[in-house]
Amino acid sequence: MTIKLPKIDFTISRRKLLILIGTALITMFLAIGIPTWTVGQSTTNLLVSAAASLQDVLNELKVLYQKEQRNVNVSFNFGASGPLQQQIEQGASVDIFISAAKKQVDDLEKKNLLLPESRVIIAKNRLVLITPKNSSGVNSFYSLQDESVKRIAIGEPRSVPAGQYAKQVLEQLKIWSNIKSKLVYVNNVRQVLAAVESGNADAGLVYVTDGKISQQVKVVVAADEKFHSPIIYPLAIIRGSKNIDAAKNFSKFLVSNPSRTVFKKYGFIVP
Q: Where does molybdate bind (predicted)?
């Protein structure tokens, strides 16, 4: 007697086969510990326009941040706060602005260019008088009036916060008019530092953090804080940013305890 068995179809559609293979690969990745966020994760490019005096500290903080946020690429545009403000007003694709003074951020807020409630002060600073390391002729702000002092570098007061603070101090000490002819105006505070380092200026007014990073200058004296406006670094997210979530995340990182430690390392005062 012959028994007929039913036919079994062992064929499988290509679509089902691909699904099975894909599922198997994902299971394997999870089993061997490949982080799932790296699979198909796009990179966010974050542009931060920041005051020149923040260059060293922010570059170090960027490395720390990107170790934790590998899908975020942070780029910096360093310069004087005034020109950076103007770039934003003219439509530059900036995500975050960090100024060395309150005025520039206030101006952008008045023009409705900032994300509401995104402002935060991330650091403070001090203004100091510096000279070349081997110089001995200047021992106070009043020494700037001496005939031996020919050139004094400061930031352009109309656009550079460090220059604005410098002018306030020199006017409060009533020596501005006496030394005005000696003043050399530059585009940002790091150019003041470079002028003194090179010997192209006999003295200059910079932030204490700038004086701290250079081996070629010495700090003569710090300006009394009552003689100038508070030196603060306000941060704000630009309303037109296409990366709001990433900008908020980086902003929170900059006021975190690990970031505060780095700011202190470079001589900044943290709020």
A: 53, 81, 162, 189, 207
For residue range 68-114, list pLDDT tens digits in order: 999 999 999 999 999 999 999 999 999 999 999 999 999 999 999 99
Is position 207 annotated in a ligand binding site? yes
- Has 93 been labeled as part of a binding site? no
Token pair belonging to 184: 């050399």
Chosen CATH of 127-222 out of 3.20.20.80, 3.40.190.10, 3.40.50.1360, 3.40.720.10? 3.40.190.10
What is this structure's pTM? Answer: 0.79
* Domain assignments of the chain as residue spans, ordered by start: 44-125+231-266, 127-222
Low-confidence ranges of the chain (pLDDT < 70): 1-41
> Are the beta carbons of 240 and 248 closer than 8 angstroms?
no
Q: Is 140 annotated as a binding residue?
A: no
